Amino acid sequence: MEIEKKQEHDLRKEGRLRYHWPVWFAEDCEDVLIQGQMVDVSSEGAAFTCYSHDQCPLKGERVTARFSVPKFSPDDSFDMKSFGRRAKVCRIEQINNFINKIAVQFEEPLSFKPGEQTENPGEMLRAVTI
Fold first, then answer.
1. pTM for the whole thing?
2. Can you give the pLDDT at residue 113?
3. How far apart are CA 33 and CA 16, in angstroms?
4. Are 12 and 42 in contact (CB under 8 A)?
5. What CA–CA distance (Å, rounded) separates 16 from 43?
6. SS3 letters across the chain
7. How far is CA 81 from CA 67, 69, 72, in A?
8. Half-sphere exposure of residue 89, counting CA atoms within 13 Å on the CB side?
9. Beta strands 62-72 and 45-51: pairing type?
10. pLDDT tens per residue, range 8-33
């Protein structure tokens, strides 16, 4: 897991937590959930990869995503906090012929800033196996 520090030229409001963990999404809660792989998350949005098939969301569509985010304690232990969020697809990047990277913005922010959980702003990497 890596905590990405916000760069001066970066237009993002906060740093991202980069980690790989399953994310489940669908257009509606009643639909069959599709599995993706989390790339990074902030309190206001996330990016994840998924197979580029006919069930992959399109830019501008709204999806419901279910995912877990590590929440660190001062002793460097962590718990996984689970979330369900409605989100708007902001960007789609084709990684290759089989995989797309989907960027979404949450309708309701998370209750904490995943990429800013460290007391030392210079600390960029957490050696944690999830």
1. 0.81
2. 92
3. 25
4. yes
5. 9
6. CEEECCCCCCCCCCCEEECCCEEEEECCCCCCCEEEEEEEECCCEEEEEEECCCCCCCCCCEEEEEEEEEEECCCCCEEEEEEEEEEEEEEEEECCCCEEEEEEEECCCCCCCHHHCCCCCCCCECCCCC
7. 8, 5, 10
8. 21
9. unpaired
10. 445 567 888 999 999 999 988 778 89
| Max avg pLDDT among 12-21, 24-33, 46-55, 72-81 | 46-55
Retrieve residue 84's tokens: 């369900």
Q: Which domains, and CATH codes, for the chain?
A: 18-112 (2.40.10.220)
| CB proximity list for 31: less than 8 A, separation 6 or greater | none
Give the pair of three-digit tokens for residue 93.
Answer: 């990047």
Taking the C-alpha atoms of residue 61 and residue 90, their distance in angstroms, rounded to an integer, is 8
Tokens 């995943």 sit on residue? 114
| Tokens 């590590």, residue located | 70
Choice between 85 and 32, residue whose per-residue pLDDT is larger: 85
Q: What is the largest CA-CA distance in the chain?
A: 44
